């Protein structure tokens, strides 16, 4: 945050305008990333501290294809379940992992069906410890978004996040879980429910908002 | 690498404004060696760690170690915040943890050398929670011969 950097006054800071979570700007663009790293390291030669240098390059907003929809019908139905949804995304997830030779799933140590079962159990009123639930839901979100990136028409990161929250059983489950966590007597459940389960940008979807 | 509160959803910006931001005495920016003679470490606050290492927890001010030779597929993220993009990191870890870029800058002679071990904190902790860990880490960096740190927040 610019405001925090101005208050903390580190000796040297490079100010970039990129999306939070992408401090080097653009994925899969080594020359761009190298320029950012070099600009930051070049500040080492300056002694007029504390300084905040403005980085000149910006990452343009990705143009979304309006009306982008998941190419296969993954929307939940009344007879659908979170477990079935997780299962049918497995081949897409495997495809993504093979393509990138990498996955960011694996914080919880659970396989995805077990992580899903933990969410279902919580929805049924039996809340697991907050940390276990947090790790499971973070893994599930990474699993879904990595899987969706391997769809034949993957859209953009933004449309895939929109898909997760508006069209999937997982999105519905997390939104349904929020009030149960917020109402728990356990302060860790409250933190999860009120701050670290639903992104601020998606909280408007919560019932009663 | 920082962004403005006004760019954020109001709910999250309000939450961040409520958190007390400490002030510090200015640290002098000392002249040092040229970049091509420096040994650089990356210190992230993205909550990164090796798969199987201890996930970060709320209020956790400790760090995890990321040896320079860690394969990309071994790195996961357990930051408590859900209010920053993770899809960039999922696609290319260098967008949050530019280890391959630093390696290239060392290879072409722009940077002198790379630390043998890099580090990640989580961020989103009270500064006092990190203080003993940061002090310990400073000693380790000296022992590793590091004389420049690239701090990369998310």
Mean pLDDT of chain B comes to 91
Shape of chain A: globular
Oligomer: heterodimer
Number of domains as seen in the coordinates of chain B: 1
Care to count the β-strands of chain A?
2
Would you kindly provide a brief summary of this structure?
The complex is a heterodimer of chains A (209) and B (154). Chain A is mainly alpha-helical. Chain A has helices at 2-8, 30-42, 82-88, 90-100, 112-123, 130-148, 157-167, 169-182, 187-196, and strands spanning 12-15, 51-54.
Word description of this protein:
The complex is a heterodimer of chains A (209) and B (154). With 209 residues, chain A is mainly alpha-helical. Chain A has helices at 2-8, 30-42, 82-88, 90-100, 112-123, 130-148, 157-167, 169-182, 187-196; strands at residues 12-15, 51-54. Chain A folds into two domains: 2-54, no CATH class; 82-205, no CATH class. In chain A, helix 5 packs across helix 6, helix 5 (112-123) crosses helix 8 (169-182) and helix 8 packs across helix 9. The radius of gyration of chain A is 20 Å and the shape is globular. Chain B has one domain (34-152). Chain B contains four helices and seven strands. In chain B, strands 1, 3, 5, 6 and 7 form a five-stranded mixed sheet that branches. In chain B, strands 2-4 form a two-stranded antiparallel ribbon. The termini of chain B are close together. Classes of the chains: A mainly alpha (209), B alpha/beta (154). The interface between A and B is large, with 77 and 69 residues.
SSE inventory with pairings:
The complex is a heterodimer of chains A (209) and B (154).
Chain A: H1 2-8, E1 12-15, H2 30-42, E2 51-54, H3 82-88, H4 90-100, H5 112-123, H6 130-148, H7 157-167, H8 169-182, H9 187-196
Parallel strand pairs in A: 1-2
Helix pairs in contact in A: 3-5, 4-6, 5-6, 5-8, 6-7, 7-8, 8-9
Chain B: H1 10-18, E1 39-44, E2 48-50, E3 64-67, E4 75-77, H2 87-91, H3 99-107, E5 113-114, E6 117-120, H4 127-143, E7 148-152
Parallel strand pairs in B: 1-5, 1-6, 1-7
Antiparallel strand pairs in B: 2-4, 3-6
């Amino acid at each position: 945050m610019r405001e925090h950097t101005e208050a903390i006054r580190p000796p040297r800071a490079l100010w970039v305008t990129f999306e939070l979570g992408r401090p080097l700007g653009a994925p899969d663009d080594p020359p761009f990333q190298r320029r950012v790293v070099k600009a930051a390291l070049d500040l080492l030669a300056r002694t007029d501290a504390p300084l905040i240098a403005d980085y000149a390059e910006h990452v343009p907003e990705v143009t979304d294809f309006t009306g982008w929809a998941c190419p296969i019908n993954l929307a939940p139905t009344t007879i659908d379940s979170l477990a079935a949804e997780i299962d049918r995304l497995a081949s897409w997830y495997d495809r993504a992992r093979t393509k990138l030779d990498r996955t960011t799933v694996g914080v919880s140590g659970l396989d995805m069906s077990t992580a899903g079962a933990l969410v279902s159990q919580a929805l049924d009123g039996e809340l697991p410890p907050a940390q276990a639930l947090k790790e499971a839901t973070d893994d599930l979100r990474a699993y879904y978004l990595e899987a969706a990136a391997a769809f034949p028409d993957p859209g953009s990161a933004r449309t895939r996040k929109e898909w997760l929250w508006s069209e999937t059983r997982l999105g519905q489950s997390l939104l349904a879980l929020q009030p149960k966590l917020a109402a728990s007597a356990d302060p860790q459940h409250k933190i999860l429910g009120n701050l670290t389960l639903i992104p601020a940008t998606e909280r408007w979807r919560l019932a009663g908002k | 690498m920082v962004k403005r509160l006004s760019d954020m959803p109001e709910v999250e910006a309000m939450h961040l404004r409520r958190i007390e931001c400490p002030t510090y005495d200015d640290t002098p920016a000392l002249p040092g060696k040229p970049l091509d003679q420096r040994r650089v470490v990356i210190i992230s606050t993205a909550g990164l760690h090796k798969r199987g290492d201890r996930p970060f927890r709320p209020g956790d001010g400790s760090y995890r170690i990321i040896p320079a030779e860690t394969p990309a597929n071994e790195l996961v993220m357990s930051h408590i915040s859900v209010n920053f993009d993770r899809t960039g990191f999922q696609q290319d870890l260098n967008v949050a943890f530019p280890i391959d870029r630093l390696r290239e800058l060392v290879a072409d002679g722009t940077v002198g050398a790379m630390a043998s071990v890099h580090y990640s904190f989580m961020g989103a902790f009270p500064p006092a929670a990190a203080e003993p860990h940061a002090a310990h880490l400073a000693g380790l960096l000296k022992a590793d011969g590091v004389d420049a740190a690239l701090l990369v927040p998310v």
